[in-house]
């Protein structure tokens, strides 16, 4: 995260990998249950007062969902519905706009499904320091509705709860959920991920 007087930039890299032992296979058998990587970029420019313009991007893949790639960009106006002070560290933002999404699913070597969508986008961001700054809470969420294929809707949200242990370190728990209304046969529509660990602010 980087902020100036009227601009806020955010870049995030998220990677998940996990395996699980197969039942009745002893120590030799295992299966991959998480294998996804995503790079997000976001730029928010204050226009006037509480109004802003926001542009976001995503480059991601998910091996366990047979999604080889997703490239998405969106842009549109937004409004800061609530803020704790002039700096806006704690706030609730709403945004709506238009975007483009390109996806490739490859369930096997003989079938590849490629999609191009023009998305109508709506999203929110909520951040707050709770219990006298003892809890850092943030939640983001959004929906993408393709104007050229209404059934391929994506609804996603993520909650991150942090407990600061010092100025730099915190104990963090995150939960994310994504529901893709139309996916190729054999692919799960609903994906959830939960993680617990330590966070570091530099």
Question: What do you see in this structure?
Answer:
This protein has strands at about 1-5, 5-20, 30-50, 50-60, 65-85, 90-110, 110-130, 135-145, 155-165, 170-180, 190-200. The chain has no helices and 11 strands. It has about 200 residues and is mainly beta. It has an 11-stranded antiparallel beta sheet, with no helix packed on it.
Query: How helical, in percent, are the residues?
Result: under 10%
Q: State the end-to-end CA separation.
A: 10 Å
By secondary-structure content and strand pairing, the structural class works out as mainly beta
Computed Rg: 19 Å
Regions with pLDDT < 50 over 5+ consecutive residues? none
> What sort of overall outline do the alpha carbons produce when their principal axes are compared?
globular
> What integer is the average pLDDT?
89
What order do the strands of the largest sheet run in, or round the barrel if closed? 1-2-3-4-5-6-7-8-9-10-11
Contiguous helical run count? 0
Pick out its properties.
mainly beta, 11 strands, 202 residues, eleven-stranded antiparallel sheet, single chain
């Amino acid at each position: 995260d980087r902020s100036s007087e009227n601009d806020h930039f955010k870049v995030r890299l998220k990677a998940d990998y996990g395996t699980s032992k197969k039942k009745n296979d002893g120590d030799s058998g295992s299966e991959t249950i998480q294998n996804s990587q995503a790079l997000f970029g976001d730029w928010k420019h204050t226009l006037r007062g509480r109004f802003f313009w926001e542009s976001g991007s995503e480059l991601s893949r998910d091996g366990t969902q047979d999604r080889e790639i997703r490239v998405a960009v969106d842009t549109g106006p937004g409004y800061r519905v609530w803020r704790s002070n002039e700096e806006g560290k704690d706030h609730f933002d709403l945004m709506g706009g238009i975007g483009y999404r390109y996806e490739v699913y490859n369930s096997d070597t003989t079938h590849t499904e490629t999609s191009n969508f023009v998305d109508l986008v709506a999203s929110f961001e909520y951040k707050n320091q709770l219990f006298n700054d003892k809890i850092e809470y943030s939640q983001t969420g959004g929906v993408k509705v393709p104007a050229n294929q209404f059934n391929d809707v994506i609804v996603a949200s993520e909650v991150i709860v942090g407990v600061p242990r010092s100025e730099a370190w915190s104990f963090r728990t995150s939960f994310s959920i994504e529901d893709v209304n139309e996916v190729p046969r054999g692919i799960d529509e609903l994906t959830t991920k939960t993680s617990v660990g330590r966070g570091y602010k530099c």
